[in-house]
Amino acid sequence: MIDLRSDTITKPTEEMRKAAYEAQVGDDVYGEDPTVNLLEEKAAEILGKEAALFVTSGTQGNQIAVLTHCRPGNEILLEAESHIFYYESGAVAALAGVQTRTIQGVNGVMNPLHIEAAIRGEDQHFPETGLICIENTHNRAGGAVVPSSNMKEIYEVAQRYSVPVHVDGARLFNAAASADCSIKDFTQHCDTVQICLSKGLGAPVGSIIAGSEEFINKARKWRKRLGGGLRQVGIIAAPALIALTKMRERLVEDHVNARFLAESLINYGGLEVVNSVDTNIVVLDISGLKMNATEFVEALKVEGVLGVTFGPTLVRLTTHYDVNRKDIEKAVSVIGGIVKGKRH
Ligand SMILES: *Cc1c(COP(=O)(O)O)cnc(C)c1O
Description:
Order of helices and strands: EHHEHEHHEHEHEHHEEHHHEEHEEEH
CATH superfamily of the largest domain: Type I PLP-dependent aspartate aminotransferase-like (Major domain)
Bound molecules: pyridoxal-5'-phosphate
CATH class of the largest domain: Alpha Beta
Radius of gyration: 21 Å
Helix content: 40-55%
Distance between the termini: 28 Å
Number of strands: 13
Shape: globular
Strand order of the largest sheet: 2-8-7-6-5-3-4
Number of helices: 14
Number of domains: 2
Largest sheet: 7 strands, mixed
Mean pLDDT: 97
């Protein structure tokens, strides 16, 4: 199977498995796991923040951030198709008790003026604006990079109104690789950030949240409340450390493969690449074919290629560490075969 469903399906490398086996461990709830401590130290340094916290997943990291920044009854501003709004099972309502106010972006990029207009004033009728969330890269916008200049403008607005900014940077390293800049060029324009180590970077488990020392101390307590205080977790921090320190450079290969995939498909009538393919995600609109997205994904599967539906006529294909150029060529020819038989 050529699995293009997600970059989350990447398996840990040989080196990661060895590192897990050999990891020095201790009880992390006592702060005594040396591998976790090293990972958190390194992550804070790379992300340009005072402190960092190892969490079990991107969702847990985002939720801890919302819980730490906000109080029940707050309103949070976030992009209309952002992961926190769209894909986290309503957790911000269920856990933090905040209400969401969505801002329609363009390719995942929100207009700072729209954000400023949505920040609430003092009137007693209003909820307090507790947090602004930016997603970078933006998943539902097809892995689109939110420019650091846009983040800077939003952060300036936020600071003027004393509202904190959290970045859902599940794939922020992809943004840095695509823009060919340091991740700090992005993270300097936010208070807190969440990074997934288990996507294109290949770790089996884990995310990082980073921010001020004070924020991370409070976040640690929320992690404990959520049952995320783990014991000899160096076993999974060791492969995560390899993901963080050794796998960033190779993300650009995924981007080259995604662009190759997109460019190869442009020649086929009946389907359209609808995203800008900034990073490792290709979104196809197949409305020119005599089938819907579910049927298209089924037809792919029969031929040994996996993708996911992304809307009634949209299909998402994601490149990652465990697929190479040959696999992509095979996927292109499979899609070519399906298109031929199904054009209107
Ligand atoms: C994958 C993803 C998450 C959540 O990460 P999990 O580890 O799957 O919980 C959050 N935000 C974005 C943008 C993502 O793509």
